[in-house]
Amino acid sequence: MIVLSMELLESPEIKARLIDIEYGDLKPQELENRLKQLYLEETGELFEGEIDIFHSSETKNETITSSNYDGTAIHISNDGHEEMYVISQGTQGGDDWLYNLKSMLAGQTAQQAEATNEFVMEAKQHLEVDEDTKTYGLSHSLGHNNNTVSYLAFGTFDEVFSINGAQPNYYELFKVDIPFYEAVRKEFAIREDMDVYDIEPQKLNDFAMQYYQDKSDNIHQIISKDDPLYAASAVRGFFTLGNVTMMDTNPDTPGLRELMEDIPDDVVKNFQDLAIDFAIGSEKGGTNGGVEALIGVDLKEFEGIDGFWSGAGFYFTHSSEIDTMIRSLEEKVPTLLDKLTPITENSEEIFDSLYEAEYITKEQKDVMIEEIAIIEQELHEINETIGRNVNIRDSGNPNAIFGGDIGAGLRIYFDHVKAIMESVDRIKESGILDNLSAITDSHSISELLSVMSEGKKGYLGTDMVYTATKGDGDPIKVNISAALRMYRETLPILEEKETKIRNFEQSIKEELDDSYKDEKRKVQDEIDRMESSPGSYRDLLAKHGHLPAFNKEMKSIKVHEVFYPLENNDFDEEIHELKKSVESGKLYIEKYRKAIEDLFDEEDNVSKLFDFSRRF
Amino acid sequence: MRLKMVIVLILMTLIVGGCGMNNESNPVSPSEMNANELPDVPAFKDEFTRDFLQSAEPVKDEFYPFVSGSGSFTMNFPQDMKVNKRSYEIGSENESEFINISHTDEQKDGFINQKISYISFMSNPENGRERMRSSSKRELDFKEIETEHTGQKLEISEYESDPFSVVAAFIWNDNNQGITIFSHIDCKEDLTKEQCSTAKSSEKETIMEMLKSIEFTGKESE
Amino acid sequence: MGQQRTFQATEQLIHNRDHSDKKKVLKTPIDGIRENDKDFYSYVNKIIISEDQKGKIIDAMKKETKDRMKHDEVICENITKKVNKAVNTFNEQVTEMKEQRISVTYEDHNME
């Protein structure tokens, strides 16, 4: 028996594009139109069923929004067949994804899986979806971790589909999937829950894979070999479940994961921790922010100190900051060193493999190895200075506490923190961070889509591109999605333009013609007043030199009025030009459509696409 | 220059040093107390667990006052258990929390591991029950239990999942707050069936004491 | 009984007011039209992917698009200039019309 799943949105391309479009947080009507267009482009058919959309931000009781869950539920029905698709964005989306990545690497996202489940239940109630309607989870990146944990633990979905997804984590499932939890405890004879972390990761991985075997068929993934998240999933905790289609988006470079696999697991993990801390910090506050995140010192507080003497002055006004700095250094530096040391020990290997894989240049490799060594050295010295300082403090002499703190505080700042900052700046100048950020392109949906093309069909971002079959020069690439959008959306624009032309005509009449008449009437009223009651205008005598005025009596005023018609108020020709442009614009749209159609053969059905595109 | 600086330093040292001598004498929470002043029980010996405990004075025999990290509920915490630091989770803006609690005493006959999951975004209590059913893959039948707390409900469902006896508890209010708790009890390997069952019922009493003591403290954001 | 005398003068009958704010009112719909044109061509210009693509049909469409864009721009530009001129003229003419020649007749009661 053939089980039809995700029937209404069958192809991976349509799902991938939908997931990408959902990131735009479109209004429901707009999303519905985009979905209908996707359907049209991918199937060549008009979607004539019903689409109902529920976004996490429009829930009535506001409970979902407060959960930071971000996603969209789409209920689709056609010919009596119903399906619900739920697209989960990596929770909190956008700028905060690093936070999520971090919590995920730490194995802490079970709560987000609960939010996913809660949202799906809420969406079903809101959209009045039947209990037995098939529900599918779609996602990219971190959303896959949420969807899959939610599916495995709570049965939230019937199936899940993802692009470059973050894998589920068995420590997470140990928290929320009770039968799995019980099975693990039985299998490995665990008495205290936390002993799960002592089980050999490979054994737990194998057990989880086997335990969830029957669910595996319902998980569909497409992963790019170059996706950094896939590389990151090599660390303990993650297991890759489901039907996975691997794609090589950059055949010339080896996959990142292959590189990572040469480097010891704990080194990779340390590197991730530091990189993420730094990335989160520097996103908010540049290099300062990045360094602050690592060593816990807010460098802004020390701005403007450029010598020991002004530093001493600074101490008297900011002794609590110095104190805070030393305390957080005391706390952070030893752990930082623990993480950094294995990296420096392996730095030759790490950066050499990045260089071999052509992710970075030879110069960048050298800079990295050298600067990381410097940073480690500086941190060691900070650590020693703090150690001495702590001894002084523990001696219990308040004066010594002070003297020790100021000396240590300022020395740490001037000698070491500044040196670290300079190192970081040299690393930045080498451009290596830009090179490495290019790696993240391989995490995008569009890079995967670009290799999912077949025949004359291809993708650019989330748009569909056709390569022209006819034409006299090189094959021409037409963004067919953009062409259909043009055909659909430009007509309303021309209508708007017509309205504005009418507004302009009206304004000309009101602001010039009518207003001029108004002004003229005001003058005429004044003339009438002067001529009918000259006595009120005695001041004219004095004003025009007929003095003294007290013995003179006003008899009459006669105004010899002259009025000219208003000039330069004729916009007829321009308005005509505007109207003509609207009319020719409508023809132009048709002409453009015809020109595109002519680039393709009839069996490409481009004409049908245009026709259908105006019918939703 | 140098001399001047030394003089300033000495002067300032006297002033600042003198000020710094004030010692705090307020009553302090357990996390700020010296280890030797604390009750000699596992809950206080564990540094992470200590942070949740509000006082070194028991609320009743063998239980100490506990406030969740999100500040959303309080309960009576058994002295011989501790919070697992590694699996502890707290959601952004205190909207959710996961607490894993275990017995530490290897000598005990009965042994409890407990998963407490708090959310502030539960749209409807049936969703909470449904999530517990799907999470346990069982048709849980909840019974309401009377507690002294008003404005919130405690519901319980028990089942056996060899070798564990499980108490599934659901606590909720009309303010979208919900706590789901799975408490697993098991026995030391070498007990007879009867001994194990006695041990389990004694541990169940501890669990019930904890569950009944749980009280929401309301959402901070409102 | 005094003597009647008449004199003539040019008099500003009403205070002047600046009407330059009409420029903004008149330009608003034109700015809107410019926005519409911009949206319109942004849809159009995404269709053909790279600049160097050649072909008779495409070249013709590209040329037509370019000409239209230019033409639409010129229309709006001309109108904007003309609006400035029209409002300036309006201001001037209204100022002028407020000044008129008047003849004032009075009786002088001077006894001497």
Automatic annotation (TrEMBL), chain A:
<feature type="domain" description="DUF6792">
    <location>
        <begin position="22"/>
        <end position="230"/>
    </location>
</feature>
<dbReference type="Pfam" id="PF20591">
    <property type="entry name" value="DUF6792"/>
</dbReference>
<protein>
    <recommendedName>
        <fullName>DUF6792 domain-containing protein</fullName>
    </recommendedName>
</protein>
<keyword id="KW-0175">Coiled coil</keyword>
<dbReference type="InterPro" id="IPR046742">
    <property type="entry name" value="DUF6792"/>
</dbReference>
<feature type="coiled-coil region">
    <location>
        <begin position="494"/>
        <end position="533"/>
    </location>
</feature>
Automatic annotation (TrEMBL), chain B:
<protein>
    <recommendedName>
        <fullName>Lipoprotein</fullName>
    </recommendedName>
</protein>
UniProtKB/TrEMBL annotation, chain C:
<protein>
    <submittedName>
        <fullName>Uncharacterized protein</fullName>
    </submittedName>
</protein>
